[in-house]
Inverse folding.
């Protein structure tokens, strides 16, 4: 059998093997889609409305002219929605807070001359984003009310703008979609070598090496199968993100191609390394799961790395998924191209991971003499 026929036969065989593995379907297709949908709904505002809203109620223990003005001013804040338009009693408001029927209860001063405006929240939600936002809104409201009470005019005002290297303003949906695409491709490599462990355990590798079949062509066929799976992952996740949640893509073909092929090779090399020292499929899946989970939450897939504690921010800089996700974002939303030195530095760090993983795996396979495994 010539090389072309041998390669096509190996490619077809590995394609069938890949799609027979339930782990492949779950970790490479279903898991990324389910995870992305959950994060899109929770953090991306799956309905397409990104504006902040908080439900509140008020207590006015001694209605007077001052409290009436405060109520009127609070009603003009668009971010606050009222469970009851009229003030309620303190006990009822505290009960609503305890039962999470409202996000916060605002208690107005009892004296017409002024006093403390109290914000009551559920202790379990005290550090939540919603509580912090309400507290910030109310703090600005109190400052404005104080200035109005003394007739002072503001001297300084604050305005905010943003800039981005993307061709259009990106949203969390765009950020998450591209992160999930990078994670899915990485998992395709990390979990994709499980069939090697199974083949070694069943003695198939030994039999294959005793035939005239080229092990190089066997490895090349497996690599192309996983590259094809990566393309399928990009297409499926992009369709779900764009048409299901309104994400936007600005594709730069060259940087996307470079990042995709580099990442696919690197994570396949890491999967190859895991298979070299795993004696069972369970052991392989355990190691791959640990590596995947560690990088998943530290490499900027779901949240920017800047949101991590300062002492932990050094770890993502050592992980290959960090640079792969950034490379995929460059090709899918930023569109800055391959002229960036930072882009190539990230590709270089990934390449180092890939080369070291591949060389270690080769040495381990040779030292364990796979042909004599069974």
């Amino acid at each position: 059998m010539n090389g072309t026929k041998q390669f096509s036969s190996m490619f077809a065989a590995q394609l069938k093997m890949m799609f027979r593995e339930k782990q492949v379907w779950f970790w490479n297709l279903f898991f990324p889609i389910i995870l992305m949908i959950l994060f899109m709904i929770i953090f991306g505002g799956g309905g397409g409305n990104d504006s902040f809203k908080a439900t509140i109620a008020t207590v006015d223990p001694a209605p007077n002219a001052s409290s009436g003005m405060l109520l009127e001013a609070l009603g003009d804040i668009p971010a606050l929605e009222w469970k009851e338009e009229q003030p309620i009693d303190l006990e009822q408001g505290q009960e609503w807070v305890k039962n999470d029927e409202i996000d916060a209860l605002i208690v107005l001063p009892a004296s017409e001359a002024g006093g403390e405006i109290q914000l009551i929240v559920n202790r379990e939600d005290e550090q939540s984003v919603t509580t912090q936002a309400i507290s910030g809104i109310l703090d600005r409201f109190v400052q404005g009310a104080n200035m109005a009470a003394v007739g002072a005019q503001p001297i300084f005002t604050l305005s905010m703008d943003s800039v981005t290297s993307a061709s259009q303003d990106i949203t969390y949906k765009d950020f998450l979609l591209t992160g999930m695409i990078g994670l899915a491709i990485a998992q395709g490599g990390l979990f994709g070598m499980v069939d090697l462990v199974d083949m070694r355990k069943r003695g198939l590798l030994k039999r294959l090496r005793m035939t005239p079949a080229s092990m190089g062509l066997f490895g090349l066929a497996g690599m192309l199968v996983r590259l094809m799976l990566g393309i399928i992952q990009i297409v499926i996740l992009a369709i779900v993100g764009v048409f299901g949640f309104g994400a936007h893509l600005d594709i730069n073909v060259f940087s996307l191609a470079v990042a995709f092929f580099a990442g696919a090779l690197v994570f396949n090399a890491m999967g190859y390394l895991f298979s070299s020292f795993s004696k069972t499929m369970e052991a392989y899946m355990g190691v791959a799961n640990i590596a995947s989970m560690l990088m998943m939450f530290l490499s900027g897939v779901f949240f920017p790395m800047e949101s991590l504690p300062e002492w932990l921010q050094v770890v993502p800089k050592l992980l290959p998924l960090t640079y792969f996700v950034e490379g995929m974002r460059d090709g899918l939303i930023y569109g800055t191209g391959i002229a960036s030195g930072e882009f190539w530095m990230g590709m270089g760090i990934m390449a180092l991971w890939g080369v070291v993983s591949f060389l270690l795996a080769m040495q381990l396979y040779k030292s364990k003499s796979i042909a004599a495994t069974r």
